[in-house]
Each structure stands twice: as C-alpha cells, then as structure tokens.
Amino acid sequence: MIINKFRSFNHLLSLLLVSLFLLNSCGALAYKRADVKDSPINDADKRKKNMEEGRKITFNNALNRNSGNFSFATSNELWRATIDVLDFTPLMTANYGGGIIISDWYSDNSNINETIKISVQFLSNEIRADGLIVKIYNKKCNNVQNCTITKINSELNSEIKLAILKKAALLKKNDKKKKKKKVAKW
C-alpha cells in the first residue's frame, strides 16, 4: 500500500515537472513586463520595431505584375490554345509542369489500320514559332500483331503549329481586352 502511494506520488511529481518544463519553454513562467516607454505608440514606429526584431511579412514583389513565373499553367495562352486545337483527339498526357501534351492514338475511321499520335512540347511561355515543337507519329498495322510506327514530317506539323500560334494570339488579345474592361469598371 505504501508502494502504491509512492508510485502515484512519483507520477504526480513527473507530471508536475513536465508541466513546469512545458510552461517554461512556452515563456509562461518567464513573463516579461511590458513598459509603455519601451513600446512605440505611433504605427510607423511599431512597424519599424517589428521589422528590426524580425517579425515581418514579405510578399516577394507580389505587387509586381511581371514577377510570377507561371510555367505552363492555365493562364498560359499557348497551353490553352493547344488544348483547344487538339480537342478532336483524346489526350494521353497533359503535363503543364513539364510543358508537354501528348495525344492518344487517333484515327478518323476512314482507315482503322492507320492512326496518328500528336506531341506538342513547349520551349517557352512566349507566343513564338520557336516556342513549341509539334511531332506527329504514324502507326500502320497490317494485323493486330504487326504494326510499324514512324515519325511524320509533313505539312500537318506546320498546320497544327500555325493553328496553335493563331489561337494563342487571339486568346492573348481577348485576355488583354478583358483586363482593360475590368480596369475601366473600377
């Protein structure tokens, strides 16, 4: 019975020591009394003191409109234009972080033994002819087991690239008009 009381006393003592340690680490026991002469009254002086003590928030040029690098996010006109132009074919991969869109094998049903796959790789965020690469692959099958895949360099590559660039330019123009209308409403 004495041993049980001793164990519960040890548990109580341990709990008390842990509580004191936690309170001390939070600063509850080392309370510093605030003095009016040490605390500035003016807002500008308060901000200055907080910044000197390292208590500040920085936005890293959040107000600078050209500071963001959006890579190939949905705000990118080239990305949106490519999705619009390739809407006739199912997409296999669309990775805007990696800057690539790959369609699945597509056939227009006129020849089921021949399909194409389109790959668009983005090299730049800017709407430029050298900002993207369009590759087209052709798959011809004699039967289910016998297929050959070849890379095509034809007019279709340049037609798709031109369609993407035109659509991107239109999207950019429309986005600028929308921004001007928003600014005019304010």
Describe this protein's structure.
A hairpin with a 5-residue loop joins strand 4 and strand 5. The longest helix is centred in the C-terminal third of the chain and has 31 residues, at 155-185. The chain has 2 domains: 2-52, no CATH class; 77-185, Alpha-D-Glucose-1,6-Bisphosphate, Chain A, domain 4 (2-Layer Sandwich). The termini are far apart. By secondary structure, it is an alpha+beta fold. It is built from 4 helices and 5 strands; from the N terminus they run H-H-H-E-E-E-E-E-H. Residues 59-72 have low confidence and may be disordered. Helix 3 (77-85) crosses helix 4. It has a 5-stranded antiparallel beta sheet with strand order 1-2-3-4-5, with helices on one face.
Describe this structure in a few short sentences.
By secondary structure, this protein is an alpha+beta fold. It has helices at residues 2-26, 43-52, 77-85, 155-185, and strands at 91-95, 100-103, 114-122, 132-141, 147-152.
